[in-house]
Amino acid sequence: MADFWYRVSVRVVPWIFVGLTRVWFGTCRVRVTGAEHLEKCASARAAVAVFWHYSFAYLFYYLRKFPSAAMVSASRDGEYIAQVARLMGHIPVRGSSNRFGIRALRALITEVQRGHNAAIVADGSQGPARQAQAGCILVASKSGAPILPIVWAASRYFAFKSWDRTVVPLPFSTIFVRYGEPLSIPADINGERVEEYRQMLENQLNDLYRLAWNDVGQQSHDAKDISLP
Predict the structure, then answer these.
(1) How many domains does the structure of the chain reveal?
(2) pLDDT over 70 for what percent of the chain?
(3) SS3 for 113?
(4) C-alpha span between 213 and 4 (Å, rounded)
(5) Which domain holds residue 45?
(6) Are 49 and 146 in contact (CB under 8 A)?
(7) What is the pLDDT of residue 98?
(8) Vertex 55, ends 49 and 59: CA angle to 5°?
(9) 119 phi/psi in degrees, rounded to 5
(10) Closest residue by Cα to residue 121 from 74, 38, 57
(11) Residue 96 binned pLDDT confidence (cut-offs 50, 70, 90)
(12) Does residue 229 surpass a pLDDT of 50?
């Protein structure tokens, strides 16, 4: 019986979520900084969009005009996110740093080589928060696609009490989106070079993060306690 209700919920809940977010997020005003970086990547065959985990809920919606292959957790709960990704035009690739990770990275590389954009959470599915992992560097290196860092902040929002404090903007809030300078990764790097570019990407994302949250008068998205359990 539990499996039956799981199958039903996996079919129904994502449709409800997508419908609600289109109405909810559609009320928000969006201000963009660094649009020239997006345009530069748009002229490439494909790009790898990279962002922190706290921001994924809104970015799935925001990036719907730029369909991407996105790594989604291989867990049962991850199926909900995979269905949401499909409904928003993305291509879910199942895997994480702890489960089917290598296989998922290879699948992402294949999708990018086919000309699809990729979307990767830089700090992975379990963190630590705002510390970049090497997977996105390897995807960019193997595929030849540039990395496009993306960060956003909202003037009004709530944050879940999760490891990353996942943020959802409140209706009628202002969202500040910042694109960073595209990062090109040399082909077939390994070892110390991977770590060099991983650290470079982490620094760039965190610099953008501070700028974005300064736009709304905060140092970080967990600087005030607006949260759900």
Answers:
(1) 1
(2) 94
(3) helix
(4) 43
(5) 2-228
(6) no
(7) 56
(8) 55
(9) -125, 125
(10) 57
(11) low
(12) no
